[in-house]
Amino acid sequence: MSFLGARLGLEKRMVEVVSQDESAWFEDLYPPSLSRNFVGFSSVPATETPRKGCANPMCASGWTKPWRNKRRPIFEGQWACGAGCLEALVRNATGRELGSGVAATPQESPHRHRLPLGLVMLEQGWITHPQLRRAIDAQKSAGAGKIGEWLQHECGVSLETITRGLGLQWNCRVLSLDGFTPRSMALVMPRLLVEEFGLLPLRAEGSRRLYLGFRDRLDASAAFSLEQMSELHVESGIMGTEMFTHAHERLLDCEFIEATRETMRDTDEMSQKIAEILIDHQPVASRLVRLHRYYWLRTWLEAGAQSRVGMVPASSEDVFDTIFTVGLQN
Ligand SMILES: [Zn+2]
Predict the structure, then answer these.
(1) Cα–Cα distances in Å, from 232 out to 148, 188, 238, 277?
(2) Is residue 216, in this structure, part of any structural domain at all?
(3) What is the mean pLDDT of residues 115-137?
(4) Which of 40, 117, 138, 320 is most exposed by smallest CB count within 10 Å?
């Protein structure tokens, strides 16, 4: 089949998938108010269209052998002619992620030096000196709790005001639950990462932007990793504890992409394992990002699994995640 023929075939399949009634996710992902912004129904994400030939710069064989299939497996938009070349591509990606500067833990992320929340709010005139004093004293004598919580409980400062203060402190938006689409947002990233790092994919806007909510502090490093995986511009924002907790619970009730955990001795062993997975499953798209101490491989088995919102899957079918930890980290 010619390249064009194959491409048209893929487009037809994607339209078929979209037209199925059971695809309730579709409305979830594309509320009517947003759907008119879509560029089109029929484009296979260009970044995952393989270049011709083996992508391994050190390849000796060209693309005449040994694999017959010249379309799969695809790793980060690239095709390799055989297992050795594929592993070389994966190893490059692993090295890139290892050296990407992504912090191993959220605490190591940059931007640790911020004006304390109490001072931010005092500066705005949203609280008084005596109020701040009272909250700090209460926090000290209790030896626990966040200053925002004490301002709320001791001084009656509204949750909304505190959340606004956090937004100023982190220089980010305050996000609301407007347009929250838990079912489709559960497909954005693995449950493990959503749970462990307190991340809340909230909604996609058009086909380019993803809103990512946080409780009371941003995690720029996680947002960056998600941006690499989803190909969406990630807009991070603070939500405040109550709203975040409520939405996070709703999200965790939804069906996530199937995920497998793997613990590897080192990144070499991980690269080999990834190459094996790709050879076994022959995905039409796959990519690797590091999110703190985890390496997250996402694998799309069929073109229909790709939505038109970046690389966010269309449903939980034909997509799977593998989450690696390397070395002594567990
Ligand atoms: Zn090759």
Answers:
(1) 32, 11, 19, 25
(2) yes
(3) 93
(4) 40
